[in-house]
Design goal:
By secondary structure, the protein is mainly beta. It has two domains: 163 residues, no CATH class; 74 residues, no CATH class. It has six helices and 15 strands. The strands form four sheets. A four-stranded antiparallel sheet has the order 1-2-7-8, with no helix packed on it. β13 and β14 form a beta hairpin.
Length: 253
């Protein structure tokens, strides 16, 4: 069987939109550390313990079907992300309550729905959107360290750990992007892939695109290192609805 030990490991306040995870020993202390890909910090949506992004799930329209309403904080108020038209499409009675766009603009979630509906809703919360390293302290706890800002520009869906520059410290490649989002959020496509050089402490320095030569557009979903029959190390990068990109790993990189 299984026993959940999330709180014991100090990870109880890490609810996020996590996409991928990889393991390594980033400070050479013999303990396995983790690196975890998340939404990133380059989004209209911001999340924290005190102001989480929340998903309300309930039969808001009274038609015996569950609707999902994603909300965010602006100041001290909580607002739905969806536009008036999208809300009315799923919850028709709102057309009568908000006949004009101006009526809906600025309406907080507790203005739109009564307290009973909100109190009876299932609520899912996200409090962390940064992609992070979880450093294993060796005592069944982890210390969370944000990955460099260049990684936070876009969601991370793929991570490959290796000592790419052969300095004795583990490095990583990261990649992601995501285009299947509503117009109000915009495409998450600011990443061209990242080469993160480990400093042996759990911190990483992002190599420039020019110096690394690792440049990949579109939606990266997986990366693997292989060795060819002629002993050439290669990195395979798999993308959604696109070609697989292959990089030769140079010996001096």
């Amino acid at each position: 069987g299984f026993t959940e030990v999330t709180d014991q490991y100090g990870l109880q306040n890490t609810t996020g939109w996590w996409n991928t995870i990889a393991a390594g020993d980033f400070n050479n202390d013999g303990h396995i550390d983790l690196v975890v890909g998340n939404l990133g910090l380059n989004s209209f949506l911001k999340a924290s313990n005190t102001q989480p992004v929340q998903l309300y799930i309930n039969d808001f329209s009274g038609n015996n079907k569950l609707e999902q309403i994603l909300t965010y904080y602006n100041g001290s108020q909580v607002y739905p992300l969806a536009s008036r038209d999208m809300m009315i499409e799923n919850i028709p009675f709102l057309a009568e309550k908000y006949p004009k766009y101006a009526d809906f603009a600025g309406a907080a979630i507790d203005d739109i729905f009564n307290e009973d509906l909100l109190q009876s809703a299932q609520v899912r919360k996200a409090v962390e959107f940064a992609s992070v390293v979880l450093m294993n302290n060796g005592d069944e706890t982890f210390t969370k360290i944000n990955l460099p800002i260049e990684v936070q520009f876009s969601p991370v869906y793929a991570i490959l750990v290796d000592d790419f520059d052969k300095d004795g410290f583990q490095d990583m490649l990261t990649g992601g992007n995501f285009s299947g989002v509503p117009p109000e959020l915009g495409r998450y496509d600011a990443s061209y892939g990242n080469v993160l050089l480990g400093e042996g402490t759990g911190s990483f320095k992002s190599a420039s695109l020019q110096s690394s030569g690792f440049i990949v557009t579109e939606e990266i979903r997986q990366m693997k290192k292989i060795k060819t029959p002629n002993n050439q190390n290669q990195i395979l990068v798999v993308r959604n609805n696109n070609t697989t990109v292959i990089f030769n790993q140079l010996q001096n990189k």
